[in-house]
Write a structure and sequence with these properties.
The chain has 549 residues and is α+β, with helices and mostly antiparallel strands. Helix content is 25%, strand content 23%. The protein starts with 6 loop residues before the first strand and ends in an 18-residue tail after the last strand. 41% of the residues are buried.
Length: 549
């Protein structure tokens, strides 16, 4: 007993059974042994360490077993109120009980009159699991201790003391020498927390420990994570697909461990989960982007490449890509945007994102009509933002912007850092300010006029830039400065608006301007918003294919 002091006697009301320690304070037993735990205390004693006395325990997890309803899931996890100084049980690989010849299996239980315990010797019958749940046990001899009442919850061990399962159904009479056990892989199905303790052929032990450590970390952090989407994103196309949705992240991790033979699956699933923990998704009002990316084709100054895609389940879904003359871009984009909406989740918050070459950033894409039959400007119909193509593809800036957005998720919104016309601030000074603590920079002049100051804004991780497309023309103008007036009004409008909600605010401003009696004279008519949250685009940007070939 010195090397197996982890065997335990469990008492709950009139029920007595067995159990075994699997961590410093957790034990496994049968759910039916602790069926009265709602009204009766659960007491644990370790016969090999009588000095520990009787220890109270609580039922932390209960399987689906219900008396008179179902025999499946007859497993419970007990938790002591303190750690015990005992080495826990060690598990054998799944299937180790079915060797050739069949190995002797030993169970340590507590039949009536033997509080110190008794040993029973059995073997597992070959063949499939009974109802995909149980292994049938048969006595090795016609004499000796049978699996009588008091053995429920006992660990079933090999000769080296490693655990292959747990006794769950025992004979009611002494002359019936059969029983059932839950093998370790089925136990882990009912309690996924067991998975990291069981060596699994095809999967490295350190990879499993890492996976379940990340699952615990995600649970502690209350990470908002859809386990079905995470599984779909991590698995290869030929990996198995579950028949039903995962009830939890634990269940998804257990499925990867037990049902996916691909040796790289555990690491891929863990990598995806770690990425989510490091870079959690946006808040619940997260955007589902439709991305229009325009770039130089290399086939002439008039030729550009246009790629349209939509994001769903954290993955980029291509809609179309083509090389076009600049004059044909608008009509192509209108058609593909309409098609891209079919790729979004029902009820998704759409966000049109134009990824543009730097010289196109002032292009009036928000004023493009929705279609040939619908003159509504795109920027009035949907939240629409632009971003710089070089910035969108910069690993350095994506990393820095992610860190900025994690700080901004709880921000109530701040007034823009103003870059007024004719500013005398040196670009290096502006760079320092924008890099350190600015979430929104407002320019009184469009990019061609703002020049080097605007370039500074693009090259540092400022999440949001805003400017009027037809703002201040530059030094030397007469009369009031339209760019200054624009920044004054915009600053008033963003008070109390979190950065994540700015695309919606700007859509409302555009719609208000379009509905004005003098749309062109409204201060918000030409507002251009560069809004850049890399978490909305979890996949690295890459060409769908080469449209130049």
């Amino acid at each position: 007993m010195n090397g197996a002091a982890w065997h335990a006697r469990i008492a709950c009301g009139k029920e007595v059974g067995a159990g075994f320690l699997v961590s410093a304070r957790k034990l496994l037993t049968c759910a039916h042994v602790v069926r009265y735990s709602g009204s009766e205390p659960v007491t644990v004693t370790f016969p090999g360490r009588g000095d520990l006395g009787a220890l109270p325990a609580a039922v932390a997890v209960r399987g689906e077993w219900r008396e008179g309803v179902t025999d499946r899931g007859d497993l419970a996890v007990l938790e002591l109120d303190r750690d015990v100084p005992l080495a826990p049980a060690v598990f054998a690989p799944p299937g180790a009980e079915r060797g050739t010849p069949a190995p002797e299996l030993v169970a340590y239980g507590f039949p009536r009159g033997y509080d110190e315990g008794m040993l029973a010797s059995y073997r597992a019958l070959p063949g499939p699991l009974i109802s995909d749940e149980w292994v049938q046990l048969e006595a090795l001899t016609a004499h000796g201790q049978p699996l009588a009442a008091g053995f429920s919850g006992a660990a079933v061990t090999l000769g080296d003391g490693t655990v292959v399962g747990m006794v769950v159904a025992v004979a009611g009479a002494r002359d019936v020498r059969v029983g059932r056990m839950l093998p370790v892989e089925v136990m882990a199905r009912h309690w996924p927390g067991l998975g990291e303790l069981v060596p699994t052929p095809g999967h490295r032990a350190d990879a499993l420990r890492r996976l379940y450590a990340l699952v615990r970390q995600a649970e502690d952090a209350r990470l908002a994570c859809d386990p079905d989407r995470l599984y779909a994103a991590a698995m290869d196309p030929f990996d198995p697909r579950p028949e039903r949705s995962f009830a939890s992240l634990w269940a998804a991790a257990a499925y990867v461990q037990w049902e996916v033979p691909d040796p790289g699956a555990v690491a891929r699933f863990a990598d995806r989960l770690q990425a989510l923990l490091h870079d959690p998704p946006p808040p619940p009002s997260a955007w589902s982007p439709i991305v229009v990316e325009i770039g130089h084709s290399g086939a002439g100054a008039d030729q550009v490449t246009v790629e349209v895609s939509a994001y769903r389940d954290g993955l980029r879904r291509p809609v179309g890509a083509r090389r076009l003359p600049r004059t044909a871009v608008r009509s192509y984009v209108q058609e593909r945007i309409d098609e891209a909406f079919t790729q979004l989740d029902p009820g998704a918050e759409e966000l049109l994102t134009f990824v543009l070459p730097r010289e196109w950033l002032n292009e009036p894409v928000a004023h493009w009509p929705c279609s040939a039959d619908d003159p509504t400007p795109l920027g009035c119909a949907y939240p629409l933002v632009v971003t710089d193509r070089s910035r969108h593809r910069s690993g350095r800036l994506r990393h820095q912007l992610r860190k900025k957005w994690r700080k901004l998720d709880g921000s109530p919104g701040a007034a823009p850092h103003r870059v007024d016309c004719g500013t005398r601030e040196r670009p290096p000074s502006l760079r320092k300010k924008l890099r350190e603590d600015v979430e929104l920079a407002g320019f009184a002049a469009p990019p061609p006029t703002a020049g080097e100051h605007f370039e500074v804004g693009l090259n540092v991780p400022v999440p949001v830039l805003v400017w009027p497309r037809d703002g201040c023309p530059g030094d030397g103008h007469g009369g009031p400065c339209s760019g200054t007036a624009f920044l004054d009004r915009f600053t008033e409008s963003v008070v109390g608006v979190p950065p994540a909600e700015l695309p919606s605010l700007v859509r409302e401003l555009r719609e208000t301007a379009d509905a004005d009696e003098d749309p062109a004279g409204h201060w918000a008519h030409q507002v251009q918003l560069l809004w850049d949250d890399p978490r909305c685009f979890p996949e690295p940007p890459a060409a769908l294919h080469s449209p130049v070939g």
